Prior knowledge:
Blueprint: H1 2-52, H2 56-102, H3 110-159
Helix pairs in contact: 1-2, 1-3, 2-3
Amino acid sequence: MLKDATTHYAILSAMLAPAFFLTATASLLMSANARLARVIDRARTLVDELERAVNDLERERIESQIAIQRRRSRITLYGGQLLYIAVSCFVGTSLTVAADAFLGYRFVSAPTLLAALGVTMLLAASVLLAYESTLAVRVINDEMDHGYARANQRRTGSQQ
């Protein structure tokens, strides 16, 4: 009886690490999905601006911004897909830990391999999302520079 209790305790303890990774991954996944929604909203706004652009220089600038948003959306999508794979791996880790104990430890290294794959996917997704953040900051800096230049152009034009 005591052996059964300690076995269950060991199984539950072994399932805690994947649960913590699962929680962290779920938070990143929510963040990635929110980022993707913002990128899509910004791309739609840029398409509207492109339709109202009055000169070729402005069209070129907006088309460049749209290309960056397209790139950001792909990167965020890939990051999200990696996070979904990580979630699957962490759930698989928990399931194989539990099944392994009940089936006489036949899976040998499957829980470890699934956990390692999940952590690798989490790392890769984090790198992609960090890169996407860099692009987002670059875009906002370009937009601020453009707005600043236009404001100065209007100011100097009105003073002449």
